[in-house]
Design brief:
alpha/beta
Length: 333
């Protein structure tokens, strides 16, 4: 049997130890947290993101500069709404990317996961098998590449392969590690307005004032990214036409372009062939590819308002209208 003095001494020692732990915890809580400072020079932001103009082009015999980039869409997927399966094979994907550039694309946006309404997620390894070989080949040919992905692991590997922009329709919300990838690599980051994955986004397409609410949510997300270390000069914003937005809401967003531009960041307009263009400039119910003229018209209106870029399936009509606009402007000067 343990005698009373010994038991009392043990309890006193335990109580003293507990008090020491409590006092130490209070002291630690009172001290300012230690912040790790990264002394490395920040990675340079790719020029295609930050330059006010792209490479000079010649239109109507005059050298002009157009600040609006044409982003050509390359879906290496079986189920994208407009061209699913057409470019899924490696050879077909690379050949189509070359056509996009020949038709006037300044960069090619390579995606391996459909974000059409109702689409389900695909495994990350499948996405990478579709995307990475194509990215490597295009970069080797000197083509500027963005990667269309919500997965940080895919983005990181694509950037290692030479992609200069991460185009994330979730703005980094679908994968919390995306912020680290973008922050540490210095690549451009297209931050789209997002209210959930494609299989449920239309449930969230409820707005009182669509322009004001979307603008506020985009601005808040950008502020969060900057607090987390992403530099402002890396960010391009996309109001997310067709994502958690129905019919006329998309037209309201386009009509309210200046409200998004007033945030002070470059703006990407991605209207190409989307459902809200059905019957506008083409017959109602016609195939999505018949919406390319309407897409080109939106590209022109966006460029006129100073858009950083337009994302399109077929660059040819968009390049044509932008070159006409260039020639018109040049003649006035």
């Amino acid at each position: 049997m343990t005698d009373l003095p010994t038991r009392r001494a043990r309890r006193l020692a335990e109580a003293s130890s507990a008090r020491d732990v409590e006092l130490a915890s209070r002291a630690a809580a009172a001290e300012p947290p230690t912040v790790a400072i990264d002394l490395r020079a920040p990675a340079p932001v790719p020029e295609i993101v930050t330059a006010s103009t792209r490479a000079d082009r010649t239109a109507a015999g005059r050298t002009v500069a157009d600040g609006t980039r044409v982003m050509g869409i390359l879906n290496v997927t079986p189920d994208s709404f407009s061209d699913g399966g057409l470019h899924q094979a490696y050879d077909a994907a690379v050949a189509h990317a070359r056509r996009l550039v020949a038709d006037g694309a300044d960069l090619v946006d390579v995606g391996g996961e459909s974000t059409r309404p109702g689409a389900e997620r695909v495994p990350v390894d499948v996405e990478q098998q579709r995307v990475l070989p194509v990215v490597r080949q295009l970069v080797s040919e000197g083509i500027a590449v963005s990667v269309d992905t919500m997965n940080a692991a895919t983005a990181e590997l694509a950037v290692e392969a030479g992609a200069v922009i991460v185009n994330d329709v979730s703005g980094g919300l679908a994968d919390e590690d995306m912020v680290r990838v973008v922050r540490d690599t210095g690549v451009g980051f297209v931050v789209m307005h997002w209210r959930g994955h494609s299989d449920r986004m239309y449930r969230n397409a409820e707005y009182v004032h669509a322009v004001d609410e979307v603008r506020r949510e985009v601005e808040l997300r950008v502020a969060e990214l900057i607090v987390l270390g992403v530099r402002q000069e890396q960010v391009v914003i996309d109001p997310g036409l067709g994502f958690a937005k129905q019919g006329v809401q998309n037209w309201e967003i386009l009509a309210g372009y200046e409200r998004f531009a007033s945030i002070g960041l470059p703006v990407l307009v991605a209207a190409s062939r989307k459902r809200f263009l059905d019957g506008v400039g083409s017959a109602a119910g016609a195939p999505p590819r018949d919406r390319d003229l309407a897409t080109a018209a939106i590209s022109l209106l966006a460029a006129e308002r100073g858009a950083w870029g337009v994302r399109v399936h077929d660059p040819a009509p968009t390049r044509a209208v932008l070159d006409v606009w260039d020639a018109w402007r040049a003649a006035r000067t």
